[in-house]
Amino acid sequence: MTDTVDKTPAPSVPPEQIKAIPVRHYGRWVSGVVVVALVVLIGIAFSNAKINYSVIPDYLFDQGIVAGAWTTLYISVLAMVLGVVLGVILAVMRLSSNPVTSTVSWFYIWFFRGTPVLVQLLLWYNIALVFPILNLGFYKDEMNQVMTPVLTALLGLGLNEAAYMSEIVRAGIQSVDEGQTEASHALGMTQGQTLRRVILPQAMRVIIPPTGNEFINMLKTSSLAYAVQLPELIKKATDISSTSLAVVEMYFVACIWYLFLTTIFSIVQYYIERRYARGSSRNLPPTPLQRLRKNLARWGSFRRPEVAR
Asked: Among 45, 183, 213, 247, which residue is least crowded by beta carbons within 10 Å?
């Protein structure tokens, strides 16, 4: 008699369910407690300090403070425009095959990046000691009359900014593939047309972020113009503090205005960066406004009652 082999498959035994145990991060809790404790201690210290906080709202929109903030804004914009225009020229000169223009551009960048902005402002402010008379042939006047605090701040801040902007623009130009230049020349474009129509538009995605940072930094660096008697925000705050004796309080007022200006332009920079990053292959995250509209739409659909059919 032949034995019959049972070919019925054995019942499959389900594997034991794996239970994931999260790793405990004790260091996070310790660092969090330490940071919170430091913040509380700083808050207690400032609350017990001899600062009259009720004075700050009174001077926040003072006529002199608002005028100083406006001066800070427009001198920063003018100096930044000068720095960007001159920086593009210096960057093109630096990349030129002409050794004379390349050397002059390098020397300019080396000098203005290597000396403090305050020293440059003071040199322009006291330039009448070296050149008492400004004689351009078609225009002649005393240098003290020509070199006003506004012009001093514009030259000191703008020429210094041009040295940094030239390096930013040069990095942006070099980020564009050389094949773009060769293709433009093959289409019959000149060097200037290639730079304006092909190279710079593509380099903007690299140039815009550091340029925005430079402008925000310019808003704060403009406070150094206080040394050349420009009536900007710090100068106005100091003048008011000398009569009201609220020295620290007026500096708090200036800090609030600087934070307001830098926040506004940080938001503008964010949207400009998104504008020039649209051609990149990566997917851009939604903006805060887009997320807000999405959440409001989701909340509205959740609260909307269903209509009976």
From this structure: 45
